[in-house]
Amino acid sequence: MLPFDFEYYKPETLQEAVELYQYLDQQGKQPMFFSGGTELITLGRIDLAYTEAVIDIKDIAECKVMQVSGDHLLIGSTLTLTQIEEANLFPLLTKTASQVADHSARGKITLGGNICARIFYREAVLPFLLADSQVVIAGTDGGKVVAIHDVFQGELKLKRGEILVQTATESRFIRAPFFSFKRRQQWETGYPLITVAALKIDQEVRVAVSGLCPFPFRSKEVETALNKSGQSAVARVDGALAVLPKPILNDVEGSAEYRLFVLRNLLVDVLAALDGVRIR
Amino acid sequence: MQSHTITLNINEEIHIVAVKAADTLLYTIRGKLGLTGAKPGCLNGDCGACTVNVDGWPMKSCLMLTVEAVGKKVTTIEGLRETPIQQAFVENFAFQCGYCTPGFIMNCHSLIQQHPDADDQTIKEWLESNICRCTSYIEIEKAVKSVLNKK
Amino acid sequence: MEVIGKSVIRKEAVDKVTGRAKYTHDYQKVPLLSGKMVISPYGHAKIVNIDTSEAWKVPGVRAILTGKQYPLTGEAIRDRPPIAFDKVRYHGEPVALVVADTPAQAKTAADLIKVQYELLPVVNSPTQAFQKNAPLVHERLGEYKKEADSHPVPDTNIATLIKIRKGNMAKGWAESETVVEASFSFAPSDHVAMETRCATAEISPDGNIIIMTSSQAPFMVKRLIADYFGEDMGKIIVRTPLVGGAYGGKAPVQLEVLAYMASKEVGGKPVKILNTREEDILTSPCHIGLDATVKLGANRSGKITVAEILYLWDGGAYSDKAIDVTRSGATDCTGPYNIENVWCDSYCMYTNHPYAAPFRGFSHSELSFAIERTMDLLAQKLNIDPLELRYINAIMPGNTTPTRVRLNKSNVGNLQKCIEKVRGLIKWDEGPVKVLNDRFIRVKGVSCSWKTSTIDTDAPSGVILTFNRDGSINLMSGVVEIGTGTKTILAQILAERLKMDVNKIHVRMEVDTQTTPEHWKTVASRGTFMGGRAVLKAAEDVIHQLKELAACVLRSPKEDLEIANSRVFLRDDPAIGLHFKEIGYGYKYPNGNTVGGQIIGRGSYILRHLTPLDPETGAGRPGPEWTVAAYGVEIEFDKRDYTYRLLKAATVVDIGRVMNEKAAVGQVMGAMSMGLSFAGRETFYFDELGRVLNPQLRTYRPLRYGENPEYLVGFVETPQIDGPYGARGVGEHGLLGMPGALGNALSTAAGVSLHNLPLIPELIWKAKEANK
């Protein structure tokens, strides 16, 4: 139950959505784009989110696509994680997304919602970071296609009133060998302690990590260390651990030291899975 | 507060209800329609006690705005009539206090419809969405498998 | 035996699978006001100011209760203001209560109440609370009204101390050749019943106070509200429909008091208070934490000669039921072992944590973790098989308990038999460790438990039976259907005694304290035992009445009559007789004359010979019988990551008599599940301000489907002679040994002694790192 009410709009075109936002924003209604809406509902009920106008973008055609277009796979931002999993067009995404929340919730949580979430795990972004994907963004100045690396730094840097519409991923990344694993504090449910997604392309291993820092990331420095030829796997992992972004999370899910322990073993697993390295 | 008069298709019946945009589906079906089978357990999408089916898929009704349900087919536990999964829950003692039961059954029901040949991994992936605090889950596993295997 | 032991389908089964089963919050009506609490965001703080002016402006607000000293509440010590006054003592404590027309209005208004706090030093563990010069949680501890057997120590944080002094400690140590000592600690956690607590109250113009509540103790609600507020007990009517899980957490009385106060404030209009999950975790009472130190001495052959035990229970901010938990922990402090010389101090400590409710097992799963881990340490030191050590020391008839009750073949089960059976179930003889490869191993751990039910010495249970015109019978008992299926078992007992079809017995699920005979509280695995005895007595009453009437109609001596299949008939000629439907409402002669009337049976039961404990020595008879059990847990352990999977969990419990096979197995497996969840993942994480950092189910995570192991359940049947058909309690016991057995398996697997819960991989990693 939300302690506040809001106006509810369900535009059918991107332009309409963008204009509505402008209009409602000018009226001071703190409008919010809404696709799965789980975060508004769960944070709103404990007073951590507020809006006076919701713009539900689920009916916008461009946000619902899931198709191969030329050499790219397009995935709409309002598709639910379950829809993406069931279609299974991007196995690394399927695997990584299938570890978010739980199955029923993933029937409501959408790709765009997860990537743009305030809660900092945003695990669905990891495959796109690895695949150098592009994202389609709609705004007042129309649509634009940009490299995800240009707009995702810890979080998706959307301007006020912009909408994440689609992701576009080159098919060679979709076919690449991958690894994805989520370690939790205990057993098989809960937030990640560490989630690692990795893929191998052009003889290089790429990794992206969630749960280590208060943002998901892919780091050039980490990958350079991991791919250093002529070094033992242990030395490569040590090298990667030495160049991690900061800060390392230290919370009820796990201490910073323990997270590093977990990450170390997971990176070893990445090398074992993708680089044929055998340890022990 | 803006009131929306909307039409909902619930358990194959058309209902016209006045709701606020911020009302969740759970709030509406319980408070406006008296369908109290779906239970509040956390209102946060964590426990699954409020699970209903929307267009045949499991939905935590606390995570859905009522206005989002317009044009969709909603099925609640009250809409199930003598289904095999209900009978299987009874025979396998798959509930004790019964509070999580409607949500669990609706999730199982949807699983049986969507994946009648579900393997252990799929069953687990689906059913870990709900918490049962009384049983050991083994009883629920037996119940759902007894129906899946029949198909 | 026709019905006893059979897996009779529970009476409310169809309601529960069709969504028709109703719980407190499912009852809706118009008007029904909503109560919303404002809760403390801190563990310990002075309330400097409360500003309600903005909240009052919200439309629909009818009352705001705050800033006033309401009568103190609490079962053992009256130490708890229902709404905090002057200061707050735990994160989640109610500070104000808003009553409004709708839940949304109440919430909006509650959010607008501004409370100014001044932080106070926090007591963040029972060990800290026990230290000299620790900050005081209750400055006026000496002034509170209390029960005779609560022993608070003014100017300390000690809410009570229960002492056990048995035998001669000097002699015990002298006889011992090997000594182990270890300390254990875990924080409070939660019950997580899927139904959050809910209560409604209204006061009618004639002064009747009508309360509906999701409670295990509706009769206690009635008593306490009468007591706290000076109301007429007879005017308080408490209704409890089906309850969505309880596990001890719904035995305390809390929201009922607030709902009553709220209704009173709005002229008696009905007010509902429904906990959010966060409030249910923070505000309502939790699962107790414990700091324990156990020292055991044994001779060379493994016979334990002496035990010295210190329990510091984390009672939280208010003592309420924690005092009884502390006493229960002292009563069975040693675990199920025959030890001649015992010294135990069991302290209930005040801290700035959420206060404690009973939790399934009532101190026993908690103390068992400490005892059973120490038993494994002793076995290790003695180089004796851990199961063998338990077998050698198993409690038996002829032994005495720590409170000096002499056991006999009825009041204690057969632990050695349980141990032998669990040995087979978990294939213990194949060895505790199986190496799969250089990284993964499979490891087993074992444990044992015992438990008596320490309940009030005058706790009653009553049953009323009424006949319907078709000869079927209505059964009314004050036992609350919290999920255990006890009311179905009561029907089975009645069917068995009357030799009739259990389907002809209708059970009233809802409890209404005005018309349902009292069952003290639906706690402590006592429903079947006490309710069952009451049923048997009521059945005798019915049999007597049926035979009286039939004797007259059939012109036969009463002694020649038998009852079976809903008929009273001549023993030597069963064809001559009367169906219940012919006499259940009196017998009508062909000419219309009628004799007799509706047959109404009554039965009540009270446990006999219970006594309070001696304050100096602990001697006394706290409970009727000891149920014993043995356990095993098998895990697959990853030596690199310190992660593990649960493979198998086994319980063998001496249940006395299996009353309903599937229900009993379900109770034991469900309890094991809860025990493993508690042992493996559940805890409150506190910060330095005493705040609980994980009050949601996404951060406080009970076991989920698929994380569970395979469960193995075995029963031993040593009849409890006084129990109905020999039955003992079974609701709690599957849980009790899980923390110990899991802790033992993991300690073996990791090669490091583990002393804390929950047993998460990080804990094991830390222990390994510390050992490096």
Going across the biggest sheet of chain C, name each strand in turn. Answer: 3-5-1-12-9-10-11-23
Using the CA coordinates, give the radius of gyration of chain A: 19 Å
| CATH class term of the largest domain in chain A | Alpha Beta
What name goes with the CATH superfamily of the largest domain in chain C? Aldehyde oxidase/xanthine dehydrogenase, molybdopterin binding domain
Task: Give a topology summary.
The complex is a heterotrimer of chains A (280), B (151) and C (772).
Chain A: E1 7-9, H1 14-26, E2 32-34, H2 38-44, E3 53-56, E4 66-69, E5 72-76, H3 81-87, H4 91-97, H5 103-106, H6 111-115, H7 126-130, E6 134-139, E7 142-147, H8 148-151, E8 152-153, E9 155-156, E10 163-170, H9 171-174, E11 178-184, E12 192-201, E13 204-213, E14 215-218, H10 220-226, H11 233-242, H12 256-275
Helix pairs in contact in A: 3-4, 10-11, 11-12
Chain B: E1 3-10, E2 13-20, H1 25-31, E3 51-54, E4 57-60, E5 73-75, H2 84-91, H3 101-114, H4 120-127, H5 138-150
Parallel strand pairs in B: 1-5
Antiparallel strand pairs in B: 1-2, 3-4, 3-5
Chain C: H1 13-18, E1 33-39, E2 45-51, H2 53-56, E3 61-66, E4 87-88, E5 94-100, H3 103-112, E6 114-119, H4 126-130, E7 158-166, H5 169-175, E8 178-186, E9 198-203, E10 209-213, H6 218-229, E11 236-240, H7 255-265, E12 271-274, H8 277-282, E13 286-287, E14 289-298, E15 304-316, H9 322-331, E16 341-350, E17 356-357, H10 364-382, H11 386-393, H12 415-425, E18 433-435, E19 440-451, E20 460-467, E21 473-477, H13 486-498, E22 505-507, E23 511-512, H14 527-554, E24 561-564, E25 567-570, E26 573-579, H15 580-583, E27 585-588, E28 594-598, E29 600-606, E30 627-638, E31 644-654, H16 661-680, E32 710-716, H17 733-736, H18 738-750, H19 761-771
Parallel strand pairs in C: 1-12, 10-11, 13-17, 15-16, 21-22, 31-32
Antiparallel strand pairs in C: 1-5, 2-4, 2-6, 3-5, 7-16, 8-14, 9-10, 9-12, 11-23, 14-15, 18-19, 19-30, 20-21, 20-29, 24-25, 25-26, 27-28, 30-31
